[in-house]
Amino acid sequence: MVYKLSNAVEREQIEKEFGLTFKYPDLYTPDIVINGLQEASLSVLTMENTNQVTFAIWGLLPEGYKEDWYVFQQMTNTLNVTLHDLQTTTWMGNSLQQGRCLAIISGFFTYLLKNGKTYPYYVQLISESPFYVAGVYHRLDDGFLSCGLITTATDDFLKSFHNIGDQVPLIIPESAKDVWLSPQTETNVLQGIIENPPKAKLRANPIAQEFFKKNILYDSILQPVFYEDVPNGGDSNF
C-alpha cells in the first residue's frame, strides 16, 4: 500500500514547470511527507479542469458521501485503488471513465525487508522535478473532492528496493497528461496505460529508518543514508 508521499516543492516551481495555475494558491504549502493515514489533501488536476490545480482529500469516498472521511477509512482503505478495484467495486462505478485525475508529487516511498529489518527508500525523478501520478476522484455531498491513487505492479528496477508489497503509484509523464484526462480516451487505452505504465527515469535512495519507526520528521529526512548489506539505491536504466 502507498500511504506516504512527498510534495516538497514550492508552488511557483509547479506553476512554471507544468504551465499551471492554482485555484486556491494561498492554501498550498510544500509538504516533505504527506501521511495518508491522517486525513490529508493532494494537489490534483481533474478531467473537469485540466490546467488548474485544486485540492482533493486523499482516500476515495463514494460519490455524494455525507459522513466523515475517517469513518469510511475505518471500514476500507481507499488511499490506493487498482484496476481490479475499479472494475469490480460497485460504488466506484464509472470512476475510470468519468473521474480521472492527476496528483502532483515530488516523490514516494518504498520499503525493503532484509535480514529481519525494514529499510525505507525515497523514489523521485532523476531530475528531482515534480511529476504526475494517476488517480480517480469523486465529488462529495459538500462539494469537496476525494481521490484515490491508482497503483500498478512494481517494475524490475523498483523490485530491488520494494519487497514488502508489489504495488507502486502509476506515473504519468507530461506527454501523456492530455490522454489521461481527456473524456474521449477509450477504456482499453486507459487499461493499457495502467497495465503497461510509461517508463520514468527514477532514482531510489535509502533514507533514515526513523522515517517510519518513530514517525520523526526533519528537514533532511529525504537525504540518502547508507546501510550495510542493502542496496545503496540507484538510477533506472531504460
UniProtKB/TrEMBL annotation:
An individual GO BP term: protein-DNA covalent cross-linking repair
Keywords: Covalent protein-DNA linkage, DNA damage, DNA-binding, Hydrolase, Lyase, Protease
Hydrolase keyword on record: yes
Pfam families: SRAP (PF02586)
Enzyme class: hydrolase
SUPFAM superfamilies associated with the record: BB1717-like
GO MF annotations, alphabetized: lyase activity; peptidase activity; single-stranded DNA binding
Enzyme Commission number(s): 3.4.-.-
Family: Belongs to the SOS response-associated peptidase family.
Name of the protein in its database record: Abasic site processing protein
Organism ancestry: Bacteria, Pseudomonadati, Bacteroidota, Flavobacteriia, Flavobacteriales
